[in-house]
Amino acid sequence: MVKKIILFLIISSFSSCETVKRTYFGMEKTEITIKPDTEVIEYYRPFLKDNEYALKIYTLSNYDAAGKALSNIGVPKIFIKNRKTNVIYQLDCFEDIQDNIQDINNNVIDGYITLKNEQEFKNLEAFINAAQSSKMIFFSGENNTMKTWDIYISYATFLGKKLRKLTLPVTELNDINEIIILNLSFNKSAAEIN
């Protein structure tokens, strides 16, 4: 065990934290990239459950939107909004989301994490609703206004499949109205074409 720790420290001293983080979570290079809409939809398909809730996937509409999004919206972020009380909870993608979701499902919310930076949620919501910033590439299911929860996720495909897998337990929340995903992957060369 001591040898593994020493080896890890030696390796990490010769590389940046970014490299270690990318390797551990299976992230691609952190340069902003874009994939065809079909690949983006396929990447987020695990969030889709047969008409249990609506799933909406948005992407950036142009290159200028990428800079604005990355400076105003953190990645990855998960916000869960209670439609009945308008209380917004923020979950940490690097913690045990499954336990958090079980607590919420069991109504063990007292002292729970509520939104600390309301402006960041407002930025995400405004960004999704602004046609000049984002475009919807996928919609499935139906909104049911009688359901309790809207889930907002800011994410990027370059974050890798391991982190996506850690995020998936949000789909186990009871009474989901919709999941809205803003994919923040983009590529400068694609914007130059437009």
TrEMBL record:
It comes from the Bacteria. This is Lipoprotein.
